[in-house]
């Protein structure tokens, strides 16, 4: 096999990339170990989670009068790195200021991604990107080629800090009306980062329920959530083409169109289903009903903040929320779920099969491998959810709807909860941790990283039809 050298040769090892392949070969002590960019990401996220859990176990991370079990530190670190927001202990009371800064740092690193944060450090140090690092960065950003990756990374960092900075300033101005300036500044920064990274962690203890009728807080947080969930690639492309719809790629058009459709349909459904619920919308004034319905349609895009008590919602509204959480945000952003574009490709595939037409999106044909990847992602996601739901139903003894809601929230890295998570057993917590982790790194990436890759067959076997349906 022909190898292309990537770095300095030393006695301890040689880094190389197979020609015509994205696999990375590492020679350690004369032995060649081949890893994929996906495996690097999977290990990187796991390492960051473990590091965060150890730091949260330090004495100065836990607030006076509180004790922290390792499973809760691990759960919190996983939820922060996977930008989920599910908690087994209250962020507001469990952690010291240092502990909360650790949680915020994990959210930022998890939201941007391991390689993007590494790229930031390299840019600050003026280092050049090696081919190995570009390959992993390509996998992390979901790009099809290596061209323009460094420039895109710069744009991503600029967009992130611009949105988070603007959000923090606006939230500070609003929170300043309710609390001292220093506290308002800290709360503004924390919730802006948590919002843009779609993390859902809050410092109030009741999420944003107290601001259910507050237009500034709802609109600021909704904007941060939506822009963070659209995907960095979409945001950068919209900026580059000056928001001209005809100049956008099919990917960006699909991401924006599906997001808009889910927002509108979700708002209408929540408004109708919860209109007469005395615990949610019924007590609110007319404009606040629409505002709360809109925010609850935004937050399942993997954000996890809530202004309505989720555990008091009707079963129909919970089912709508579960569907929105499973679809999630768009690729290349801070959210989870199977992704909006995956959902769109599935719909296009079904309509093309039933209608006997090509898979067209905005007059462009969707490749077959994209369809197969979408089907694989959805099947693996459903299999993982059903398997973990079975485990939770045995270990927890809670209502099936509550367990399904919690499991979907974890997989979609959402963070909405009916109140089950703090009551989970150790087995249940480990199950939710696995769902959050797989939801963040991506089910297909995780499965392919764990699978043993053998050589591709040199011949194609004959095919034969099988009756289905």
Describe this structure in words.
The protein has 469 residues and is mostly helical. The chain has two domains: 35 residues, no CATH class; 415 residues, no CATH class. It is built from 18 helices and six strands. Helix 7 runs antiparallel to helix 9 and helix 15 runs antiparallel to helix 17. The longest helix has 28 residues. The N terminus is likely disordered.
Give the DSSP E fraction (strand runs of 2 or more residues). under 5%
- Class from secondary-structure proportions: mainly alpha
Per DSSP E runs of 2 or more residues, the count of β-strands stands at 6
Strand order of the largest sheet: 1-2-3-4
What is the overall number of helices?
18
- The number of distinct structural domains comes to 2
* Overall outline: globular
Residue share in helix: 55-70%
**Measured on Cα atoms, how large is the radius of gyration?**
23 Å
Uncertain stretches of 5 or more adjacent residues: 1-21
Averaged pLDDT: 85
N- and C-termini, Cα separation: 44 Å
Helix-strand pattern = EEEEHHHHHHHHHHHHHHEEHHHH
Largest sheet: 4 strands, antiparallel
Blueprint of the fold:
Layout: E1 3-5, E2 13-18, E3 24-28, E4 31-35, H1 37-56, H2 70-81, H3 91-94, H4 97-112, H5 114-125, H6 131-141, H7 149-175, H8 181-196, H9 215-230, H10 232-240, H11 250-274, H12 286-298, H13 315-327, H14 340-355, E5 360-361, E6 364-365, H15 368-395, H16 400-411, H17 426-441, H18 443-450
Antiparallel strand pairs: 1-2, 2-3, 3-4, 5-6
Helix pairs in contact: 1-2, 1-4, 1-6, 2-4, 2-17, 4-8, 5-6, 7-8, 7-9, 7-10, 8-9, 9-10, 9-12, 10-11, 11-12, 11-13, 11-14, 13-16, 14-15, 15-16, 15-17, 16-17
